[in-house]
Structures are given as structure tokens and as C-alpha cells.
Write a structure and sequence with these properties.
InterPro entries: DUF3243, Uncharacterised_YmfJ, YmfJ/YflH_sf. The protein has helices spanning 7-23, 28-45, 51-62, 65-79. It has 86 residues and is mainly α.
Length: 86
């Protein structure tokens, strides 16, 4: 089973990666840029596996680039307390 199959597992996975990046001293601007790049990759290369991912994909496709950056930043905020890094 992929972490993309279950939205809670996906958030935990992203949370763990976020905490790892922060522990390594990654700047918030770099994290935001990586989140945007990940969103762009997922929107073009990965089929949504659940309803939540479908909503995010639909929002991403209708958003301007500025709005996509906002979505990526909101996902970072959403997962900041997820995973094992709390």
C-alpha cells in the first residue's frame, strides 16, 4: 500500500519529511518552494488515490501559479504537526 492511498498516511509522511528538513536547517522559503514543486509533480504525474487528493488536484489545476504557491504553503501548515516529529 502506497502512502498516497490514505490521506492520513500521506499527511504523516509529509509531516515526517517536513520535520526532517527543519532539523537539517532547511530555510522556510526552500521548504515552500519544494512544496510547490511537489504539488506540480503530483498534479501532472500522479493520479489522485482518494477523495482528498482529487479535491487538491482539482484546485491545483484551476489555480494561478500564485494560488498554487498558496496551496503548497497551506499543505506545509496542515502537516506541520503530523508524523513523528512533534
Amino acid at each position: 500500500m502506497s502512502v498516497l492511498d490514505n490521506f492520513e498516511q500521506w499527511k504523516d509522511f509529509l509531516g515526517d519529511r517536513l520535520h526532517q528538513a527543519q532539523k537539517e536547517g532547511m530555510d522556510q522559503n526552500v521548504i515552500s518552494d519544494l512544496a510547490y514543486q511537489l504539488g506540480e509533480y503530483l498534479s501532472t504525474q500522479v493520479e489522485p488515490k482518494n477523495a482528498q487528493e482529487k479535491v487538491l488536484a482539482d484546485l491545483w489545476h484551476v489555480a494561478s501559479e500564485e494560488e498554487q504557491h498558496a496551496i503548497a504553503n497551506m499543505m506545509v501548515k496542515l502537516v506541520k504537526d503530523e508524523g513523528n516529529g512533534m
